[in-house]
Write a structure and sequence with these properties.
The protein is α+β, with helices and mostly antiparallel strands. The protein is built from seven helices and eleven strands.
DNA sequence: CTAGGTGCCTGATTGC
DNA sequence: TGCAATCAGGCACCTA
């Protein structure tokens, strides 16, 4: 699942591959992939547009064009791949953009949950997102302020994109383990020390995962823009490790369902 | 406000 | 071996 570190890696790869390229043609293979505008307008507006920058906001990849922006949310299984236009298209490619250097930017998505948005201003899509957790100006004091007055379980709160942008199931679980906080813990019950631990844990986990170019699990389809897997799966302490020993104390990792999502934790290190 | 349920999808896994 | 049912999961959307 592409979360912040994976999307960051994809965006960085696309930046070097795509800046300065002009889009020659756009072909949509699965209409629902295009969230807006209508497919016909989407395909008509892209040819001739030049890609001037590529960035990330939350879990969105943002392709800034000379006119407007193309935002991509990869959801569960989406991939953005740059390949030669000669490479055969497989059935999961739902959008292909022909570039002026003979290559193609392809949106590949087996589950078809991913969406693309062609808009004038990226904020039209990202307006509801919370702060960027790894921004240099996002401090522990900012995090404490963000937590103030928040109710609900930590796991659900960390997954809420309006609270913080970019954490998903993997990194929410890993950050809670690193902070030694139980996923069912009420956000309003955290002591100042626990709030700071959670802030530091989020920083540490995300930054390390970005360095490792994201997490590629056996059953996950994440790869970067050139098709390469990430390396952070080697560092996972709890996610997808039900029944395996906690790296800190050896207790078997447990799995719970919270708000319809799986939550993995060490019952010894993360006490409620 | 939070919590819970449903739908969107398909490949992998499980059950018989 | 084959086929059907179940599951995973981000997020929008709905109800309590």
């Amino acid at each position: 699942m592409p979360e912040l570190p994976e999307v960051e890696t994809i965006a960085a790869g696309l930046r070097t591959l795509l800046i300065g390229r002009t889009i020659r043609a756009a072909r949509v293979g699965w209409d629902k992939t295009v969230a807006r505008p209508a497919v016909a307008e989407f395909e008509a507006r892209l040819p001739g547009r030049c890609i001037v920058n590529v960035s990330r906001r939350g879990k969105y990849v943002v392709l800034q064009l000379d006119e407007g922006s193309l935002l991509v949310h990869l959801k569960m299984t989406g991939r953005l791949l740059v390949t030669s236009a000669r490479e055969p298209l497989d059935k999961h490619v739902h959008l292909a953009l022909d570039l002026d250097d003979g290559r193609q930017l392809r949106f590949h998505d087996t589950r078809k949950f991913g969406r693309v948005y062609l808009v004038t201003d990226p904020a039209e899509v990202t307006v509801g997102l919370g702060p960027e957790p790894v921004a240099v100006d996002f401090t522990a004091a900012d995090f404490r302020r963000l937590l103030a007055g928040r109710k609900g379980r930590l796991k659900s709160l960390l997954m809420n994109q309006e609270f913080l942008a970019g954490l998903g199931n993997i990194y929410a679980d890993e950050a809670l383990f690193a902070a030694r906080l139980h996923p069912l813990r009420q956000a309003s019950s955290l002591t100042p020390d626990e709030q700071d631990r959670l802030y530091e844990a989020i920083q540490e986990v995300l930054k390390r995962a970005i360095l490792e170019r994201g997490t590629t699990l056996d059953d996950s389809s994440y790869v970067d823009a050139e098709g390469h897997a990430g390396g952070y799966q080697e560092s996972l302490a709890v996610y997808h490790r039900t029944g395996q020993p906690c790296p800190r104390c050896g207790t078997p990792i447990q799995r719970l369902v919270i708000g319809g999502r799986s939550a993995h934790f060490c019952p010894h290190c993360q006490v409620l």
